[in-house]
TrEMBL record:
Transmembrane segments: none annotated. Its EC number is 2.3.2.27. Component of the Smc5-Smc6 complex. GO terms for cellular component: nucleus; Smc5-Smc6 complex. It comes from Kalanchoe fedtschenkoi. The keyword Hydrolase does not apply. This is Non-structural maintenance of chromosomes element 1 homolog. Keywords: DNA damage, DNA recombination, DNA repair, Metal-binding, Nucleus, Transferase, Ubl conjugation pathway, Zinc, Zinc-finger. It catalyses: S-ubiquitinyl-[E2 ubiquitin-conjugating enzyme]-L-cysteine + [acceptor protein]-L-lysine = [E2 ubiquitin-conjugating enzyme]-L-cysteine + N(6)-ubiquitinyl-[acceptor protein]-L-lysine. InterPro entries: Nse1 (IPR011513), WH-like_DNA-bd_sf (IPR036388). It is found in: Nucleus. Coiled coil: none annotated. Belongs to the NSE1 family. GO terms for biological process: double-strand break repair via homologous recombination.
C-alpha cells in the first residue's frame, strides 16, 4: 500500500484498532488528518475512501460502512472480504462458541416476522448439534462432538456476553438479543448467501423491518423483508 499517505494509514489503523466506529467518530478522525469536514467536502471524503479501498483490495480487505438497524446510525470498519464467519471468529472463539453464534444469527435472520432479534431464553435453548456441517458429521461418524453436546447454559450465557462486548451481537431496547454492528459489517456476503432480502434503498440486509422502514422512508420495504 505504498500509494497511500500517512493520513490514509492513520484512518486504516484507527479502524483496525477501534473496531466498528460510528459515523461521527469516523468523520472526526477524517477531519483530524485531512483538515476537511466530510459533510462539507463529501467528494474529497469519497475520493479518499475509494483510494484506500483500491489499495486494500490487493489484500482482500475493504473499508466499509453499514447502517445499524437497531439505532439507525451508520458505522465504519475494515473487513476481510474473503474469510467466512467461522474464519473471522476462529482466532478468538472456540468451536462451540462459533456454532452457538451461527445458531443465533440464523434464528434472527430466518425469523419470518423480521423483528431482528431473539429472546435470551430462546438463544440459550438453541441446539448446537444443528450447526454441524456435513464434513464434520462424516469425520465424526455422525456423532455429536462432546464439546458441542456438553456446551452448558452457563457457558452460553458467558458467550453471549462476550459476543455483545465484541459487537457481534447486541442487547436490544426490549432486552432481547440482536445482531451487533460487527455482524452487519462483516457478514454482508453471508446474508446474501442465505437469501436475506436487502432493503431496496440502502441495500443492507433487511433483518429488522421497522428500522429499515424508518431509515429509508419507503413503505414498499415492508413487503420485501
Amino acid at each position: 500500500m505504498s500509494a497511500l499517505g500517512w493520513q490514509h494509514h492513520t484512518l486504516i489503523q484507527s479502524l483496525l484498532s477501534r473496531g466498528p466506529t460510528s459515523e461521527k467518530e469516523f468523520h472526526d478522525m477524517f477531519e483530524g488528518v485531512s483538515k476537511k469536514n466530510p459533510v462539507n467536502y463529501p467528494r474529497i471524503f469519497n475520493d479518499v475512501l475509494l483510494k484506500i479501498n483500491k489499495e486494500l483490495s490487493y489484500v482482500q480487505f475493504e473499508l466499509r460502512g453499514c447502517r445499524n438497524q437497531y439505532d439507525g446510525e451508520v458505522y465504519y470498519g475494515v473487513v476481510n472480504n474473503v474469510a467466512d464467519e467461522q474464519s473471522k471468529l476462529g482466532t478468538k472463539y472456540t468451536v462451540p462458541q462459533i456454532a452457538f453464534y451461527k445458531g443465533v444469527i440464523e434464528a434472527i435472520a430466518q425469523d419470518g416476522t423480521a423483528q431482528g432479534c431473539i429472546s435470551s431464553i430462546d438463544a440459550l435453548n438453541l441446539r448446537l448439534e444443528s450447526q454441524m456441517t456435513a464434513t464434520n458429521s462424516e469425520s465424526q461418524g455422525a456423532a455429536v462432538p462432546a464439546a458441542l453436546k456438553y456446551f452448558s447454559i452457563s457457558q452460553k450465557e458467558k458467550t453471549l456476553d462476550e459476543f455483545v462486548r465484541d459487537k457481534w451481537l447486541c442487547h436490544t431496547s426490549d432486552g432481547n438479543i440482536g445482531l451487533g454492528v460487527r455482524s452487519f459489517l462483516d457478514l454482508r456476503s453471508w446474508f446474501r448467501g442465505n437469501d436475506v432480502p436487502p432493503c431496496e434503498v440502502c441495500n443492507e440486509a433487511g433483518v429488522k423491518v421497522v428500522i429499515i422502514f424508518r431509515c429509508c422512508m419507503s413503505s414498499t420495504l415492508l413487503y420485501i423483508v
